Automatic annotation (TrEMBL):
It comes from Durusdinium trenchii. ATP binds at residues 173-180. Residues 98-412 form the Kinesin motor domain. It comes from the Eukaryota. Belongs to the TRAFAC class myosin-kinesin ATPase superfamily. Kinesin family. This is Kinesin motor domain-containing protein. Residues 72-122 form a coiled coil. Residues 1-27 are annotated as: Disordered. The keyword Iron-sulfur does not apply. Keywords: ATP-binding, Coiled coil, Motor protein, Nucleotide-binding.
């Protein structure tokens, strides 16, 4: 236990002995009253000091064994206890040396708390332990969830697309959190897109439907659209370049975009794979990081007895990040890529917000990304958003922001349950 600081006050009589003189004194004793009174006060202070020092010492002792094996709530309690004891110590003007042991312990436990799981899942409720914010989602997948589990949560959308709805599946989240892995998979683990392609063809076969199916794939890099099914030159250019417009029914048309027919599942899978490979080529030609772009794989479905084509988009969004967190600050090209990604994601957030708040004007025109998705967000379209969260506590603030956007997206409701021409709100692409 730290040395008692109050020893310098010991000549002052203890509170008990001084009390009667102080309380019952006559006028004659007045000159002494003030000094005795100070003595009492100082003694009370020294007792308080003793209590605070004891509290600090106890807090240090009791929390010294806290480590990763303790639950996060225990670690938080320990940190709060030390913080409280330190605040009391500071209020009593304790010296740095007197606070040092508790301060060292507080820092150790604070770091431990930050290193520990920053996201806590309880059923469909997720808590960001660092900020205490809680979010309720339709489903939460933890580290034990497989690609199949994630697909199971969205496979019904294949039927919605076949029923004529425009459907979009997004993967959103900070850079490196697993968006591409979830959407487009890895060599040994098919992602949502590959699984959904199989599901579509399975449903078409099962229902014995006559449906024309085709696919396209494009990338939006630095506000520049690239067709991933067409060749690009060594500078990443294509002739003619892609351009967008809205048709009379409010559907987004990308002029110049290659849409390739697929009569069988393996043909659509091959189109998809070719697009992914071309993405790496495009990234190289443009000297870009492939993850610094949005990739949109789209399946078009037209039933024999219908003149309407529904779209099923798989939108692997580029990762949002804070500029100073990465090396991009030192590299101008990377900085521009990151700024453009952040701009587009903020435009997407604004569109989602406006739809959720049922605003009359939806700012689709603020970015090419939102123009591209105009007929897939709001109206009769169906959208499913996965928010990929990194387990790293170093990025917990960005993760918390991503969860906030997802929470807003949850409030978006369809205009009608029956598919029809998308309602054009706000102004579309020129
Ligand atoms: N659930 C997972 N299981 C195994 N590996 C994963 C998982 N999620 C992501 N990974 C791996 O982590 C790395 C980063 O994932 P990914 O590229 O999907 O992140 P991202 O969110 O798309 O990043 P960026 O924003 O930079 O595009 C990849 O090597 C990926 O294979
Ligand atoms: Mg990615």
């Amino acid at each position: 236990m730290p040395a008692r600081q109050g020893h310098a006050l010991s000549p002052i009589p203890p509170a008990d002995s001084a009390a009667p003189v102080h309380e019952e004194s006559s006028q004659a004793l007045k000159p002494f009253q003030s000094s005795i009174s100070i003595g009492v006060q100082t003694t009370v202070e020294s007792q308080e000091l003793e209590v605070v020092l004891q509290k600090l010492a106890l807090a240090v002792e009791d929390t010294s064994a806290i480590n990763q094996k303790n639950g996060i709530s225990e670690v938080k309690e320990a940190r709060d206890r030390l913080q409280e004891a330190l605040a009391e110590g500071r209020a009593m003007s304790l010296s740095k040396d007197q606070l040092a042991a508790a301060e060292r312990q507080r820092r150790r436990i604070h770091n431990l708390y930050q290193e520990m799981e920053s996201l806590k899942v309880d059923g469909n409720i997720l808590e960001v332990t660092l900020t205490g914010d809680t979010y309720e989602f339709d489903g939460i997948f933890d580290t034990s969830s497989s690609q199949e589990d994630i697909f199971d949560s969205s496979c019904d959308l294949a039927q919605s697309a076949l029923d004529g709805h425009n459907v979009t599946v997004f993967c959103y989240g900070i850079t490196g959190a697993g968006k591409t892995y979830t959407m487009y998979g890895a060599p040994e683990a098919d992602g949502l897109a590959q699984r959904m392609i199989s599901e579509l063809f399975r449903k078409v076969d099962m229902n014995d439907e006559k449906v024309t199916i085709s696919g396209s794939m494009m990338e939006l890099y630095n506000n520049h659209l690239v067709d991933l099914l067409r060749p690009i030159d060594w500078q990443g250019r294509q002739n003619p370049p892609l351009s967008m417009k809205l048709d009379k029914s409010g559907n987004v048309q990308v002029e110049g975009l290659a849409k390739e027919r697929a009569s069988e599942e393996h043909e659509l899978q091959a189109i998809f794979q070719r697009g992914l490979e071309q993405r790496a080529v495009a990234a190289h030609a443009m000297n870009a990081e492939s993850s610094r772009s949005h990739v949109l794989f789209t399946v078009y479905l037209t039933k024999e007895d219908s003149d309407r084509t529904s779209k099923l988009h798989f939108c692997d969004l580029g990762g949002c990040e804070r500029l100073k967190k990465t090396e991009v600050e030192k590299d101008q090209d990377r900085k521009l890529e990151a700024i453009e990604i952040n701009k587009s994601l903020s435009a997407l957030g604004d569109v989602i917000e406006a739809i959720a708040r049922k605003k009359k004007y939806i700012p689709y025109r603020n970015h090419k990304l939102t123009q591209l998705l105009q007929d897939a967000l709001g109206g009769t379209a169906k959208a499913l958003m996965y928010v990929n969260c990194s387990p790293s506590s170093a990025t917990i603030r960005e993760t918390a922001n991503a969860l906030k956007l997802a929470n807003r997206a949850k409030n978006v409701v369809n205009l009608a349950s029956e598919p029809c021409s998308p309602t054009s709100r706000g102004r579309g692409p020129d």
